Amino acid sequence: MAPTPLAPETQAVIAAEAGGDGSGDGDAVAAAEATSAAPVALAAPDFTALDLPAQAQYLVQELRGPNAQRNRKATLDLVRQYEANVGQARAAARQKFGEGGAEADAFAFQQPEGQPELNKALQEFREGRAKTAKVEDASRADNLAKKQQLLDQLRQLVEAAETKDSSAKLKALQSEWKATGPVPQTDSQPVWDTYHGLLDIYYSKQGRFLEMKDLDRRRNQEAKENLIKRAEGLMALTGINKALDELTKLHEDWKNIGPVPNDQREPLWQRFIAASDALHQRRKEFSDERSGQEKANLAVKKALLERILPFAEFETDRVNLWRSKTDELQELKAEWDAAGLVPRAQADALNKQYWAAYKAFFNRKNDFFKSLDNEKSANVKAKQALIDQAEEAQNNPDAEAARAVVMRIQKEWKDVGRVPDKLADKLWHRFRNACDAVFDRPKHEAKQREEKATASSGEQLAYLEQLGTQISALGDENPASLEGFRAILADWSQAFDGVGTGDRSEEQLLGLLGQYLDGLPDLSYTDRADLLFQAEVARLKARPQAQQQLTRKEMALRKEINELENDHATLQTNLAFFARSKNAAQLREEYEGRMAEGQKRIDVLKKQLKVVRA
């Protein structure tokens, strides 16, 4: 039911209350709320003074702290700075490694201590942020549904005849409305308009609109004055984030209180917004302080850059001078790293100039040292000797021994230094081809077995069809027996184990064996399952790469056992909570039944695991 159009005098009262345009103070509150929800800069220690492990530890604490989501921008800025520091450390380590003349492919960078825990904390932080947003959206949707139900109740009250308890019902409904939290932003104004429109209709219908409005406004004035006192008290809180969170809640409460007497509307709002502005000023002062520090850092880095840029053009034919200049540049780099963050607008351009000069110096240095190839001829002989060993391993009939030799000489290959560029590819291709031939031998052997199994697949199919016919003919005159079951397995093994069998053939065989056991009237379900599982394991052991097949089977059994045991532990834990439930006995019986069934399955799986490992 749509609200009944208001009388002119009622519209005039509402317009005067809302500030003359009927919009109320909702826009001002929403603006203040948006301001209070802005991210707050993180009060970090001297982050640049920490080493990489300490920086990782600090970031883990911030990411897992109570205000992590509130401070996410500042925290993620520090994470990017940390990642840049790790990148610089990696580059420096790679450069130092290359200066020793070692092969670049052999370089390995050790992650800083605390890096895995930081990665984990970042993942938890992102998941927590997504979960919080989802919970907030769900809460606002629930609040919308509840307020829509309250609107339906209010419509019924408006349309119903006056009774002695109508006023009490209205007050209870208003209290429940005010106690309900915020709704989605797109629905906030329509729901608010509908609610107050229905209230106006109710008051007009009862002939007491102005009297009730005046009383309601005085109560609203008291409520808003209380909110103002709480807002003004937030300046005494030491934590700016906690104070801003509380201010956001106060703004939400302010929107739901409703209008006050016209002569008090603007003074009350100005007091409330003044308390809000004072709190936001605290945040601005903090942000300004950090901005000033970044500008100071920018001046330091610009001065350092003037000293670093000449290194890009440095040239000499003296080894000692190259080394001394390297030390000098590394000292400047340490000062650069310690200078801290600069304003984002200048950071990229500044870093590009810095890294261009830094890399240009080391490129020139590398070119110089590449000319010193006195050891390259010895390296050619060393690599040729390793190639000879790899090619000899190709002819070794013992595949495992050949593989061990190749793995050993691959490690030795990495330790051999550079060779002339014109020989590097040729030597590497010979070495790699010899190694690949050793490692690919199992694949060739498997392919041969597969081809042999394919050749015998026709015979296997005919055998399985004949076995299916025999099983179909079982009856009282031709009964099944355990001896017959074992004979089938023996015949299959004798006929095809030498040539190999495919997965499909093995699956069909096990299926027919199950049908055969169905013909044994005195065989229990458990015994039937044990016989089939023993047959399956026997077939796995008889096939090529049996150890791999058995390992996969064992892993599958262990995984299922572990899952069942975890479920059993969860059910056991949940039993402790059922004492407070009205259906405790029924739930306990159900869970205990599930636990018993799970335990039976665990016992069966453990028995099968023993068979696999036997």
From TrEMBL:
InterPro entries: DUF349 (IPR007139)
Pfam families found in the cross-reference section: DUF349 (PF03993)
Keywords: Coiled coil
Coiled-coil portions: 547-608
Name of the protein described by the UniProt record: DUF349 domain-containing protein
Protein species of origin: Hymenobacter caeli
